[in-house]
Amino acid sequence: MIGPLNHVGVAVPSIEKAIETYKNLYNATDITEIGEMTDQGVKFCFVNLPNSQIELIEPLGDGSPIQSFLDKNPKGGQHHICFEVKDIHKAKIEMEEKGATVLNEPRIGAHGTPIIFIHPKDSDGVLIELMETPKH
Ligand code: CO
Fold first, then answer.
1. What are the structural domains, with CATH classification, of the chain?
2. Which of 25, 67, 71, 96 has the most CB atoms lying inside 10 A of its own CB?
3. From 55, 58, 129, 132, the catalytic residue
4. pLDDT grade, residue 63 (50/70/90)?
5. pLDDT at 131 over 90
6. Active site includes 129?
7. With contact defined as beta carbons under 8 Å apart, do 62 and 56 qualify?
8. What local confidence, expressed as pLDDT, does residue 72 receive?
9. Which positions ≥6 away from 117 have C-beta within 8 Å?
């Protein structure tokens, strides 16, 4: 059911500093502009790799859903991994039928396609994002 690994989400206290790390320490050259999703309380950008992406996310505004993660992990840390699925609504129904806790109604994510999150308790402590594959 799950398709390719789309990205690994990394929560950071400062996107600008994290971008410098990926540029200077790992010689990453293809990094997107920083975007904001005010309704979801995040600033984000993507470090493009040959086979995947790292999504850097920084809290934006009060009550950001990643602030509590950063409170526990002040230096930042791996926050979620994202797999592509063909149909997000079918995926949500299937997840719920299997007893998993789907954390949100499908909403548009950083790639412009609908996403849902699955509670970490269902996947060995890992927060899973499912994202509908972009239709190019
Ligand atoms: Co993500």
1. 5-132 (3.10.180.10)
2. 67
3. 129
4. confident
5. yes
6. yes
7. no
8. 95
9. 80, 102, 103, 104, 127, 128, 129, 130
